[in-house]
Every structure is written in structure tokens, then in C-alpha cells.
Amino acid sequence: MKNPFFKIGVALSLIFVIAWIILWVKSGDPRSVLLLFIGALVGPYMGLSFPFGLTFKVGYSIALFLSFAGFIAGVTFRKRIWGQALTVLAVVGWFLCGLIGLGTGT
């Protein structure tokens, strides 16, 4: 396919299927992949609202900002391979930041 959004979607789908298989094998529960999506939705808020030091908040905010900016830049340059890779990395980075925030708030 020549559609760059299709390539980005396939790459993200493969990453999430691999993460789901790894989480399922490690925890024994197929519902553990919901942790990834809950982390992406609620995690950034929890990570910023939990009472941590200034260095954690600044570093966490920078990571979230870079992930968001990487997503915007990747979608802007979606016809180039590095733009597609940047979009995938930015989404994975956002999900990882969400998991960090979810882990700090619980």
C-alpha cells in the first residue's frame, strides 16, 4: 500500500500485538493489555498530578511534549519513511510515559 497511514497503523498494530503476547505470557491474563491503553489515557494526568519532585515533573513533561511533538512532526512528514518511523516511536513513547504515570499514581 502506498498510504502512509496504513503503514503506520500496521506498525503500531504489530507492536501492540507483540506487547499483548508478552504481557499475556508474563501475567497469564489476556486482559493485561488493557493496562497499556488505560496508561495512555489516564497515565499522563496521574504522572503530573502525583506529588513528586520538580525534577520528575520537568522530565516527565519534557518526555510528554517530545512525544506529542514527534507525533505531529511524523504526521506532517508522513510520506517519508522517517516521518512514519517518528510517528510510531512517538506513539510508543506516549504509551510508555502513560505506563510510568499509571505506575506512580497507584
Characterise this structure.
The chain is mainly α and 106 residues long. The chain has one domain. Helix content is 83%, strand content 0%. Helix 1 (4-27) packs parallel to helix 4 (81-105) and helix 3 runs antiparallel to helix 4. The chain is flat. The chain starts with a helix and ends with a helix. The model has no long low-confidence stretch (mean pLDDT 85).
List the total number of helices: 4
Biggest beta sheet summary: none
The amount of helix comes to: over 70%
Tell me the strand percentage band: under 5%
Radius of gyration from the CA trace? 15 Å
Which regions have little confidence, pLDDT < 50, spanning 5+ residues?
none
> Span from first to last CA?
42 Å
- Written as H for each helix and E for each strand, in order along the chain, the element string is HHHH
**Which whole number gives the mean pLDDT?**
85
Shape: flat
Structural class assignment:
mainly alpha
Please outline the helices and strands.
Elements: H1 4-27, H2 34-49, H3 54-76, H4 81-105
Helix pairs in contact: 1-4, 2-4, 3-4
Task: Give a concise summary.
This protein is mainly α. It contains four helices and no strands.
